[in-house]
Design brief:
With about 280 residues, the protein is α/β, with parallel strands linked by helices. It has a single domain, classed as Rossmann fold, CATH 3.40.50. The chain contains 10 helices and 9 strands. The strands form 2 sheets. Strands 3-2-1-4-5-6-9 form a 7-stranded parallel β-sheet, with helices on both faces. The chain has a two-stranded antiparallel sheet with strand order 7-8. Helix 5 links the parallel strand 4 and strand 5. The longest helix has 28 residues. The chain is globular. The N terminus is likely disordered.
């Protein structure tokens, strides 16, 4: 028991005075990640598009005594991201860690989507990570800091009714691998967290057919707090990847052995209406 308490005390100073920006952090995983880094001594910059939710998130951190600010910005806008990074640097004098967490999920067959929905989805999930990173790189290099991307099991294997989600999350893996090669010599750490099925925010909606928003329907294998701790650890240990949940680790292992096994299993389950048991919709 004494060892656990000492270990917890040590973690309180893991990121003392480090400046950490988390996009999409007004609720859910993003806010939990912000809280975990704040608990470990970091100065937090919250970000989201919704002003009201962002304000509530900031108040919750400040009420707990954490050092934090909030910057309202749409990550699909290059100019807004440039200004966000500039404001972050002015506010805290630098930037040590960027967590690219903003994104949306989906639940629709590809053939039921329209062109505008596809464009908006890619803008949010891919360009919404590229723009903040593009403008943050100089500061991150200066501080030999970290850039982390929130990916998913969908970035490791293809899943039905998640075509664009899989495409964008897989693209983040390629982006991270390239940045690691480019920025590694400058002491920059680049990591990817492959999040599995996580508890749902009651207010969360995902993209449905024709751009409509629907409630997510999936099992929860990890809590936000558990996921948040993994984000802190991947930065602390400067690891390149972290695959979460048992099903995520299993999917990655099987996909490495044979991608056909995964796809054939999913096709079989859907054909025989077994997908509900596997949490695949």
């Amino acid at each position: 028991m004494i060892f656990i308490e000492r270990n917890g005390d040590m973690k309180k100073n893991d990121f003392k005075d480090k400046v950490i920006l988390i996009t999409g952090s007004s609720r859910g995983i993003g806010l939990a990640v912000a809280r975990e880094f704040a608990r470990r001594g970091a100065k937090i910059i919250l970000n989201a598009r919704n002003k009201e939710r962002l304000g509530k998130a900031l108040k919750s951190l400040k009420d707990d005594g954490y050092d934090a600010i909030a910057i309202q910005a749409d990550v699909t806008s290059a100019d807004a991201c440039r200004k966000m990074i500039e404001q972050a640097v002015v506010s805290y004098g630098g930037l040590d860690v960027l967590i690219n967490n903003a994104g949306v999920s989906m639940r629709a067959n590809f053939e039921d989507l329209d062109a505008e929905t596809c464009r908006n989805f890619v803008d949010t999930n891919l360009m919404g990570c590229i723009y903040p990173t593009l403008y943050a790189v100089p500061e991150i290099k200066k501080n030999r800091g970290s850039i982390v991307f929130t990916s998913s099991i969908a970035g490791l294997i293809g899943l039905p009714t998640a075509s664009l989600y899989c495409a964008t999350k897989t693209a983040l893996r390629g982006l991270a691998d390239s940045l690691r090669c480019e920025l590694g010599p400058d002491g920059v750490h680049v990591g990817v967290v492959y999040v599995g099925f996580t508890e749902n925010d009651p207010e969360k909606k995902v993209v449905g057919s024709k751009g409509g928003m629907i409630s997510p329907d999936r099992p929860a294998h990890m809590s936000w707090e558990e996921v948040a701790e993994e984000f802190a650890e991947i930065v602390r240990k400067r690891r390149s990847r972290s695959v979460l949940t048992p099903i995520g680790k299993f999917a990655e292992y099987v996909a490495r052995l044979s991608p056909d096994i995964v796809s054939d299993t999913i096709v079989f389950s859907r054909k025989h209406q077994l997908n509900e048991r596997f949490g695949i919709h």
